[in-house]
Amino acid sequence: MILASTIRRILGQLRHDPRTIGLIVVVPTLLITLIYFMYEGQPAVFDRVALTMLGVFPFIVMFLITSIAMLRERTTGTLERLFTTPVGKIDLLFGYGVAFGVAAAAQATVAAAFSYWALDMRTAGSIGLVILIAVANAVLGVALGLLCSAFARTEFQAVQFMPLVVAPQLLLCGLFVPRDEMAGWLQTISNVLPMSYSVEALTEVGVHAEPTGIMWRDLTVVVGSIVVALILGAATLRRRTA
Amino acid sequence: MSEAIEVRDLVVRRGKKTVLDGFSCVIPRGSVTGLLGPSGSGKTTLMRAVVGVQIVASGTVTVLGHPAGSTPLRRRIGYLTQAPSVYADLTVAENARYFASLYGLKAAAADEAVEAVGLTAARGQLVANLSGGQRSRASLACAIVSRPELLVLDEPTVGQDPVLRDELWDHFRRLAADGATVLVSSHVMDEANRCDRLLLIREGALIADDTPAGVKAAAGVDDLDQAFLNLIRRQEEEVAA
After folding, report:
1. What is the architecture, at CATH level 2, of domain B1-75+191-241?
2. A69/chain B closest Cα distance in angstroms
3. B94 and chain A: CB distance < 8 Å anywhere?
4. What is the pTM of this model?
5. Domain ranges of chain B
């Protein structure tokens, strides 16, 4: 009940901000279009890069808006006030997870549909799986954003967590250098970064017509990372502060 | 049990500063109690301790018979923070309805609270587009929406039009008449006269705890401003002696 009205409240805040909705829906699609023209005449490369980016862009966008949204709850005092009401930490964390997950689903669906039909992206597996993995990655972005916002006092600090959290995952996910060709210690780092698994899952959908065991395992790792990040996020949310 | 709030030997430190050092007070139920003192005296810290969001170093705060901040209290208290803590990107009505929903209340309760703070005409406006005084009233609507047994209000009347301020005080008095306890901080002395009891704090210590008439009698003057000045001077002389 409280969870449902919290989800409604967060979606209501989004609804009053049409420009943000526009950016959420349009930006990944525009960037993938850019990639299309970068690799014009090399459809195989475009397929691989665009598929990876369908997972990466929602992660970045959702990480950013969630960490700023949560930071706003802290700095405007609404979080402090909520903690004097019957709201539970879980209501808040899942409220953000679900509400922004819905936004991410819309974003991933538009970007994937556009990539398939307008940009002629091809994958062996189905578009539905691509969207599923993209949304899981976006919710991972939400969960990590909630967690990181606890360590930022100001918006300036919050945005700096973006390169810190996103860049290593993007560099080491296997897009630039295949993971099994990296130095051993880089592979080890890559192995503990959740985005490596979502990119691998997307790659599996790219080359296999049917969902593979590796894909399901990777998706499970991503979902597990979401749960861990939310639990850590709950631990950093304190009803009492100094 | 007639006390709404009982504070015993409360010590609160923020950073290196000890904001409250062994603070004790009792606030009776069904009253309007004014918390007065200069900026930085510990008013907000005391209120935060009462609603259970302040980390305390030692001492106890008992609210409506329960330790401050415990789960059963969360349905029974309303808290207005000093800076308006409402969502700027929602309308007044949406804010009130969200806070109403946290207590399982319907939109009708939210609309009533919006009316009580005189914002019915602005109910469809985004909080971001309101004036400062309207924003703090929107925030107040969210604090009173659950008809709490204890209402903790941190400077609710700052920046309000005098007529409106008068109406808000009438509202607080009505809530107390219906059995609620209202703890309200202010630094406007003419408002202090409308309280049943006054707590004066300065530098984290309680200087006076009495009715407005009692405070004036103890200080031997008929003006609250002057009365507080006298009490502070008297206390400083005692400390010096």
Report:
1. 3-Layer(aba) Sandwich (3.40)
2. 11
3. yes
4. 0.90
5. 1-75+191-241
